[in-house]
Amino acid sequence: MESKKDYPLWEVFIRSNRGIDHKHAGSLRAADAEMALQNARDLYTRRSEGVSIWVVPSNQIIASDPDDKEILFDPSKDKIYRHPTFYSLPDELEHM
Amino acid sequence: MRANQNSKTLSADELKFEELLASGRKIEPRDWMPDDYRKTLIRQIGQHAHSEIIGMQPEGNWITRAPSLKRKAILMSKVQDEAGHGLYLYSAAETLEADRTDMLEKLNNGKMKYSSIFNYPTPCWADMGAIGWLVDGAAICNQVPLCRTSYGPYARAMVRICKEESFHQRQGYEIMLTLCRGSAEQKQMAQDALNRWWWPSIMMFGPRDDKSPNSELSLKWKIKLFSNDELRQKFVDIAVPQANILGLTVPDNDLSWNEETGHYTYGEPDWEEFFEVIQGNGPCNKERVSNRREAHENGQWVRDAAIAYAEKRAKISRPKTTQDPL
């Protein structure tokens, strides 16, 4: 009866202030990039939450597979020497 | 790959899921989850989204007749927020592979439900006050714990919603306060609105725990963190003193303070009415859904045109992108 076609999905990233990274705020549907930006403004910055917006088509995001979690992230667990607390230094050395 | 949920021993997937729940960590979209967990969430988030969208109507009714420009601007902001809340929630449902168009169709043809409260009429301006104070107040009681629900995207949407909900309740209470400090007639308007909205608000928390078939699993999966009756009690305990400050009388003859429990004892709502409204026989069910359907159908040409325009433009030029270095 009516077309089932919906607008494509976009991911929205908002920079809340100068000096801060853009952070994922959520997603929305819009016909094109321009509408996505306008909708993002209406949807995610109604109370001055942002000074800059990125919108990215959701299907352009490449995500890691949760099943690969061990392969990807476990190797860093046994490299405790990457953390400053690994090194015991004399107390006289106050700030390092 | 989905594990067979009837097998007695837990699969590795199920174990991992249970472990995440037990440790209080969130389930995220790409994690394995039981089919019923997914279905329950889609139903709950979908109903929640629909409630926000339908919830625009009772208040939208008064935008053109708000008593001042200030009240009109506030009411428009509030109704716009409700639309926003609906959109956050549809997005959250989509992370579960629910189809937004499909959910909206199910709302339009009555196959999916929304909160019973929005099927009551708003014949008087004072209803805007009572809705903000009581309906949004009850929603806050429901929604604050949902910020800690086990499904990540739902929890994040709720955090955003709760931040905005507090304005809704305060503006409603302020409307009531203004009426209660006005003429005797205005105060009576406020009392009448409280009389209209008290019991529907009490029923917003859903059936009693012993009559709530979906609750047990939802609690086990930490989708819900408190039972219907626990949340209802919390609401009554908060709302009664607020009514006292207004100098209004809560329309419940059984209401009394229980020194021993430290809670109010309250009367039983008319559950028959509740189930009638849920079944689609409330005062405004048909009007709400037909308005919604009409708005959707009347907007179809706009959506079609926007898609046609986007497709045409994509063919002739690449979309403008920012020159900002990341």
Sequence-ordered SSE layout with sheet pairings:
The complex is a heterodimer of chains A (96) and B (326).
Chain A (H helix, E strand, L loop, with lengths): L8 E7 L6 E8 L3 H12 L7 E6 L11 H5 L23
Antiparallel strand pairs in A: 1-2, 1-3
Chain B lengths: L11 H11 L12 H20 L1 H5 L8 H26 L5 H9 L17 H21 L5 H29 L3 H20 L11 H6 L7 H19 L9 E3 L4 E3 L5 H11 L3 H14 L1 H17 L10
Antiparallel strand pairs in B: 1-2
Calculate Rg of chain A over CA atoms. 22 Å
Instruction: Return the string of H and E elements of chain B.
Output: HHHHHHHHHHEEHHH
Side by side, the strands of the main sheet of chain B go: 1-2
Residues in helix, % of chain A: 10-25%
Class of the domain at 4-63 in chain A in CATH? Answer: Alpha Beta
* Poorly predicted regions of chain B: none
Description of the structure:
The complex is a heterodimer of chains A (96) and B (326). With 96 residues, chain A is an alpha+beta fold. Chain A has a domain at 4-63: Phenylacetic acid degradation B (Ubiquitin-like (UB roll)). Chain A has 2 helices and 3 strands. The longest helix of chain A has 12 residues, at 33-44. In chain B, strands 1-2 form a two-stranded antiparallel ribbon. The chains are: A alpha+beta (96), B mainly alpha (326).
